[in-house]
User: Fold this.
Amino acid sequence: MRRTIFVGNWKMNMLISSSEKLVQELICASDFVGNFDIIVAPSFTSLSAVRTLLKGSRVQLAGQNMSSKAEGARTGEVSAAMLQDAGCDYVILGHSESRQYNSESDKLISKKVLLASEITLNVILCIGESFDEYNAVKTKEVLERQLLGCLEGVSEEKLINLSIAYEPIWAIGTGQTANPDQVQDVHYFLRSWCEKSYGKKMASGIRILYGGSVDSQCSSSLMLQPDIDGLLVGGASLKSKSFYDIINSSFETGD
Ligand code: PEP
Assistant:
């Protein structure tokens, strides 16, 4: 049984004071019961303040990225161990914005996946196709290439801490959510790929999230799909109400 997961990616938004305000609101509203994980990914500079407020709550912490080196001469970078030391249980890797603006390649991302897995920091690995690739019906080809590249050299036992986030680039921050049936088809493909590559046990256990302009209008139809195990939310996670509305409506059955 896969545990449902909701991740709020705050990106480069909010100073420490507004991060604290948001997380306080989230904790106040987090009296709902259920078998699911809630994770927030603030900026590096807000991690410590948010961690303090999260103590004793069910909300967990993630870093938005990390270095491909374990330590040393990498001015301006943050290592996997530093994230863990700062209270992170998770790290988001391979986000399309990191790929686009920091020229991150699949090879570089694979080094990060390896480093995180060595210290059992849970990885949320983002993959997704561009609009042109989508229109050219190359989605599955692109995703397979990204998975092969990003997981190169990562042994099967290290994959226990891995989740995959399917994030079509054309859906991120555009208000254009992918069609739930199409997302299901892609997620089924990803799970089948995992089974082919790593076996049934790994494939049935791995959590596959969808991300891309998720709001409370579309969350339940996405979450009703059998292979969508959670949601990665950007813009709508910056307000406690919209994030909570997404989580609450995810459990509506549509009856
Ligand atoms: C994201 O940043 O991963 C994301 C899905 O953003 P948004 O929800 O704003 O599209």
Notes: The chain has one domain: 4-249. The two ends are 23 Å apart (CA to CA). The longest helix spans residues 180-198. Residues 9, 11, 167, 172-173, 211-214, 232-236 surround phosphoenolpyruvate (CB under 6 Å).
